[in-house]
């Protein structure tokens, strides 16, 4: 997922809802609208809980969860045409800090929870 400080809420591309086992067309799905750089779009609100993995302690066969968001829903945006979701300020406000620093290979991101 991409950290997006301009996004108020965490969201995913609308067409990825099925990957999570959700159906945007189900009659009981909460719907709304949202706006951003790409204009206005329909959104579908589903149960999803975001967690961060501990990269140092985990392995390919043993994921280690370092933190889990208290929010248990996220929006799936119809017009979000990307291969990834956006972590919005709703989640980033739960963290103590986020630090970006160069590490010789690119950018190191340190999240203090």
Structure description:
A hairpin with a 2-residue loop joins strand 3 (30-36) and strand 4. The chain has 113 residues and is mostly beta strands. The chain has 1 helix and 10 strands; from the N terminus they run ββββββββαββ. The longest helix has 4 residues, at 89-92. Helices cover 4% and strands 42% of the residues. It has one helix spanning 89-92; strands spanning 2-3, 11-13, 30-36, 39-47, 51-53, 65-68, 73-77, 86-87, 97-102, 107-112. It has a 4-stranded mixed β-sheet with strand order 2-7-4-3, with no helix packed on it.
Instruction: Name the helix and strand elements from N-terminus to C-terminus, one letter apiece.
Output: EEEEEEEEHEE
- Provide the spatial order of strands within the biggest beta sheet: 2-7-4-3
Query: What shape does the CA trace take?
Result: globular
**Most strands sheet:** 4 strands, mixed
Radius of gyration: 15 Å
Distance between the termini: 17 Å
Percentage of β-strand residues: 35-45%
Counting helices, strands and paired strands, the structural category is mainly beta
Features:
1 helix, mainly beta, four-stranded mixed sheet, globular, 113 residues
Task: Give a topology summary.
Layout: E1 2-3, E2 11-13, E3 30-36, E4 39-47, E5 51-53, E6 65-68, E7 73-77, E8 86-87, H1 89-92, E9 97-102, E10 107-112
Parallel strand pairs: 1-8, 2-7
Antiparallel strand pairs: 3-4, 4-7, 5-6, 9-10
Provide a concise account of the structure shown.
This protein has 113 residues and is mainly beta. 4% of the residues lie in helices and 42% in strands.
